[in-house]
Predict the 3D structure of the following.
Amino acid sequence: MSTRTKKTFDCIAMKRDIQQRLLAEYESVRDRYDSYWHFLQETNRRNPSLQILRRKLGFADSPKDH
């Protein structure tokens, strides 16, 4: 069995890009949310793919996160 020696993407760069885009979106709507955490929670709730994954993993939204 062989292992791949070269990645087709950079995980750290991808994570940094996602974080920068989320922060920029938050900055444009920050008056609608109590905190960045609440913004992220609502963003996650609106993502159908993430909701499917959460159901598969058995995660349920906690009332305290609202």
